[in-house]
C-alpha cells in the first residue's frame, strides 16, 4: 500500500505516519541498487517476524527519467484524442442511460459518437495551436533513485542488520 502525504493536513495520518513531508529517521541496515531488492529485504524481515513498522525504504540520489516513446504525429494525436473521447463518451452515455428509462443502448452509442467527435476536435485544436512551439515526441516520466536505503529505528536496528546479513549470504536462488 502506498500513501501520499497532504501538505494541508496537520498532525498524523492513520497508522501514525506524519501528514507533512518529513525527513526519514532511523539507522541504515541495508542499501540496494533497485527498489525491488529493497522490497525483497523488507519482505524477508517481515517473514522473519521482524517489526517492519520500524522500517523505512528511502530512495537516495533521485532522478527524473523521461523515456521517449515515439514521434508525435497527427495520426497519433487524433487516435489518442478519439480514444480518450470514446472512454468519456461511453461513461457519460452509461450515466445518462441509467437515469433515462428508454433507449439505454442508444444513450451509450450517442455518448460514444459524441465523445469520439469531441475528443478528435479538442486533440486537433490543441496540437495545431502548439505545433512548432513544443516538442514533437511523446514520452513517459518516472522518478527513480540511484540507490535505496533501508532504515530502521534504533531499538531494533541491530537485529535488522543481522537478518539482512543472513539474507545477503543466501544463494540468489534461495532469496524470497
Automatic annotation (TrEMBL):
Residues 29-100 form the General stress protein 17M-like domain. Pfam families: YflT. The chain crosses the membrane at residues 77-98, 104-127. Keywords: Membrane, Transmembrane, Transmembrane helix. The keyword Membrane applies. This is General stress protein 17M-like domain-containing protein. It comes from Amycolatopsis mediterranei (strain S699). The lineage of its organism: Bacteria, Bacillati, Actinomycetota, Actinomycetes, Pseudonocardiales.
Amino acid at each position: 500500500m502506498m500513501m501520499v502525504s497532504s501538505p494541508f493536513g496537520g498532525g498524523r495520518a492513520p497508522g501514525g505516519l506524519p501528514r507533512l513531508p518529513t525527513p526519514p529517521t532511523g539507522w541504515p541496515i541495508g542499501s540496494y541498487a533497485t527498489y525491488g531488492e529493497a522490497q525483497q529485504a523488507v519482505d524477508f524481515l517481515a517473514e522473519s517476524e521482524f517489526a517492519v513498522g520500524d522500517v523505512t525504504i528511502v530512495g537516495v540520489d533521485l532522478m527524473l527519467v523521461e523515456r521517449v516513446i515515439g514521434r508525435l504525429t497527427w495520426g497519433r494525436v487524433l487516435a489518442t484524442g478519439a480514444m480518450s473521447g470514446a472512454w468519456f463518451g461511453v461513461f457519460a452515455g452509461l450515466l445518462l442511460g441509467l437515469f433515462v428509462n428508454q433507449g439505454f443502448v442508444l444513450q451509450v452509442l450517442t455518448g460514444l459518437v459524441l465523445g469520439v467527435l469531441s475528443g478528435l476536435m479538442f486533440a486537433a485544436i490543441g496540437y495545431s495551436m502548439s505545433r512548432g512551439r513544443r516538442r514533437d515526441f511523446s514520452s513517459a516520466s518516472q522518478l527513480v533513485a540511484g540507490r535505496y536505503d533501508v532504515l530502521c529505528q534504533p531499538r531494533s536496528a541491530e537485529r535488522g542488520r543481522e537478518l539482512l546479513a543472513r539474507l545477503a549470504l543466501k544463494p540468489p536462488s534461495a532469496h524470497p
